[in-house]
């Protein structure tokens, strides 16, 4: 059904005669040692070059090398001039541009638009090694270096900016990145299939302007070509005249001939054979149909229309039925072909089986690269996610069809890590992907899968057509544990717990063998308002999973903990929702050391909600119900403060807010109250954030308080600034300041002020 030419079926380019390089060259000296006089393709990336399949440019580079091309890498170039972009010489075919594994703006700025102090993809973790909007800058510099060399954009930054998009950092709608970058072609999603086709067709002598039929690509053209049906979606639908549906089985030419005969008085011959011709029609010719989105000029001035465009865009993401999209930018059209066909298991094995060195390039001299340290002992077993969470862009980038590797390929990679990667101690840090437990899960019917237009397979509930059998994943875990030299297999990828509870045997396997003391999961919220805008399951699914988790942990004789993560200030979240979440956290003895506020990333559905105040999950009109949006700095701080209800630094803000909300009953020292009425002494208080630890709950509850930093109960109560002794001390100080302290020796107590009511 997803017919596509396999990656390994292309005839190799002539440069296959060169053996695979130990590392893709980053200098002319390395090229000379390999015997190269030039590169066919030069990849420019904002990340350090780590030759590992978790780094996108390493995958693309090695894949193109396997196709017979000579590929060089320019990593984190000095963007202030074109000189650094010329270090490998003029590429014969094209420049490939990517900002890196992360969007360059998200990489540099926090959700509060503050500059980050580090960069995990840079040697030494140093910040400032890539420019803002790196894809734009790199592309323009490559054009300055050699204007005649085609520039092809890729990576997640280009993928999520392929169309007019809301930019959180400038608080406005920006044009497609393809327009601003002056590039020739943009490849979105996991672009292995597209980039291989581009390379071979350019090598065969085709011009870059002629490559307009590649799935997963975007380019600029002036007009819709002949032979295409265009569906106008430039306006929000309004009730009005409904055109009669065209019968595709009627030959309009014959009808015209019959009408002419009747006009001449010639009788119809009922016995005559009438030819039946299937005329083209948009509903039957999706591969020749394009949907016209509202123009950039309209979107930038109309947030509600932007929400409508976002809804249309997200409805065209299933590779089985997606149509092309087109959007006007001034006098030009940005044309988006349908998404790429997912890789088969054989192709996934091919991609991950390429000769990666699995370590950073030697030019870094062994300097620590934090992102590599995190993943060097991990294995990616699949791609894609059918969860469709609105705040996440995985579905828009990798797609919702799960692309799986074979068990044999995964086990070979574990053995390769064991035998080749320096510092391996026998512990695999992760077997996962975007979601830990979607391996080999798919629709029960390929026909239904190809026709489905739902944004999620698990919201508002798990689809009846979804296969939730975890047996293949259980078998993989067991096979991996049995490999010689492997002591432990941990699961660090995010777990979809509403799927896990459908397979108690999987939960037992996970909890018994693959949890290293704590397991991170992400319910994101407890209240239905924000959860419905996130497309996340209700907190009841979390409760069911926790029961299984605790049960199997006890059976295994292990003390293990769940560490839930939550989002503050997400669209659809009210102050009352955050207050209720804070009360849930307190009831469950949980204190968050790290708090994440909603980050409006480009192209995400929740970002459209944030910008427009409308919900694109439903049909958008100008009269649609408004969505609660948290934009002001004070309200964002308040929502984060509710998540860190235990931090005394947040108590003044919370007291003020609770009084404004009419919930002063939650202020006090009672068990059912959220925060104390009095503030501790500043010189006696040390922030839990600074200490990276959180005290235990105390003797009364008998339960440990868990932390996100370690996931385990902290040892002892010495770090608790608000234990009984400190509370008494703070209360005495408050009484002293109010004139209610103990009288001086020989004196009398002063008159107490009236108790406030």
Automatic annotation (TrEMBL):
Pfam families the UniProt entry points to: DUF3362, Radical_SAM, Radical_SAM_N
Instruction: Copy out the cofactor comment.
Output: Binds 1 [4Fe-4S] cluster. The cluster is coordinated with 3 cysteines and an exchangeable S-adenosyl-L-methionine.
Cofactors? [4Fe-4S] cluster
Q: Which SUPFAM superfamilies match?
A: Radical SAM enzymes
Keywords attached to this Swiss-Prot or TrEMBL record, sorted alphabetically, are: 4Fe-4S, Iron, Iron-sulfur, Metal-binding, S-adenosyl-L-methionine
Q: Which InterPro entries match?
A: Elp3/MiaA/NifB-like_rSAM, Methylthiotransferase_CS, rSAM, rSAM_horseshoe, rSAM_sf, UPF0313, UPF0313_C, UPF0313_N
Q: Region (Disordered) spans which residues?
A: 673-757
User: Which Gene3D superfamilies is this protein grouped with?
Assistant: tm_1862 like domain
Residues bound to [4Fe-4S] cluster are 385, 389, 392
- The Basic and acidic residues compositionally biased stretches are 721-736
| Keyword set includes Iron | yes
User: Which part of the chain is the Radical SAM core domain?
Assistant: 371-647
Zinc among the record's keywords? no
Could you say which protein family the record assigns here? Belongs to the UPF0313 family.
What protein name is recorded for this chain?
YgiQ family radical SAM protein
